[in-house]
Design brief:
- This protein is of the alpha/beta class.
- It is built from eleven helices and 21 strands.
- The protein has helices at residues 6-9, 13-34, 36-44, 66-71, 105-121, 139-150, 163-172, 182-193, 216-226, 339-348, 384-403; strands at residues 87-91, 99-103, 129-132, 154-157, 177-180, 206-210, 229-236, 241-247, 254-256, 261-266, 280-286, 297-303, 305-306, 318-319, 324-325, 330-332, 335-337, 352-363, 366-375, 408-412, 426-430.
- The strands form five sheets. Strands 4-3-5-6-7-8-9-14-13 form a nine-stranded mixed beta sheet. Strands 10-11-12-15 form a four-stranded antiparallel beta sheet. Strands 20-19-18-21 form a four-stranded mixed beta sheet, with helices on one face.
- The protein binds zinc ion.
Amino acid sequence: MAIYEPAKEQMPRELLEQLQVERLQTTLNRVYRNVAFYRQSFDERGIDVRDVKEIASLRQLPFTTKEDLRASYPYDMFAVPLRDIVRIHSTSGTTGKPIGVGYTQNDLDHWATLIARVLTGCGIDERDFVQIAFHNLATGTFGFHAGAERLKASVIPASIPDLHEQLRMMRDYRTTALVCTPTYALRIALALEDSEISPHELNLAVGLFGGEPWSDDLRAELEERLHIKAYDNFGLSEIMGPGVSGECEVREGLHINEDHFLVEVIDPITTEPMPPGKAGELVFTTLTKEGFPLIRYRTGDLAALLPGACACGRTFARMSRVSGRCDDLVICGETKFFPARVEEILLQAEGVEPHGELYVQREGATDSMELHVELDPAVPRLDEIKTLERIKRQLAEGIERAIGISPRVVFVEHGTLVRSAGKRNVVVHDKRTR
Ligand code: ZN
């Protein structure tokens, strides 16, 4: 199994940590000198960046949030003079103000190298034909393009909406690797089924999918339909784009490019560090970024750091696949929880369908919750009132054990609740006036 930069990716952990500390100090000096946001934030807290002499000291530093980035739009977070910026990527602000991220030439060089590492981890080399099918202007397009060229593979830019055109290019150019989002890969796979092109006419061997959380079920489906081995990779525009981490051929977690990024996993509610193996919010500190360095950036993505060494020989830490976002956090009175916990209880509960709607209400100064669920039609109608009471009680108790608060359970008519096609089986309605 090839490794693109063995001297880095197989670095002994002690040396890696030494390198990380040096790069962290450089980064902290850079942001303190050049970014008013950080200078002010450190000064307010009495933090002297020269005191940061080990990775553990990172925890004294404040977090950076997406809100901070929005507030600094367009240039306030840039850490070099604008004449040194050679690329600006703007994220479309679907939920608010946009975020603008700047890259120096060194940043772009590093980006290409890190993508070359990720591609090599999936077995791609200079003999491959890499079809890159992200939507126009997605940062992934630019990162993968440069990284595949760095590897001397043949790049086929394919940011085109037409699925049949996508398949035709794939067949004619004998594409061996497909790079896109998992959702788009599924659309390509479904189009293949309706097309006159047979999967056997294609030379596809590998798929690199990222940009959104996806499941092992979808992985199995894509592998079967497209006759490929499918790999996960992770990144986000604020940090760099793709190339932050990627699966190796072992596919037991994504190796984080730790010589360029420091990773932490925190409890999104208490912000305390999570133990290895336990999922929490991913937090990254950039170690080499010049244009747009970030300190302890809260990504909102949920994943765990995996303990132990990987069979591939890389020494870089591995993260689990991203399982979701922590934007969904619900705060009800003193209790904070993720709807996913309620979903788990509904899945295990007897007598009810595995989806529900949760209403959070406020009366006076007290918050309460009401959970609407549908009865499983198979529930025996014998001794109905007693049975229903028992189901209600068990469900409320199960939820209280899981999240610390007991909702009022209401049965609604079968077929009336929202059945989301996506990942959410419990829809939350916040009825409180703020
Ligand atoms: Zn590995």
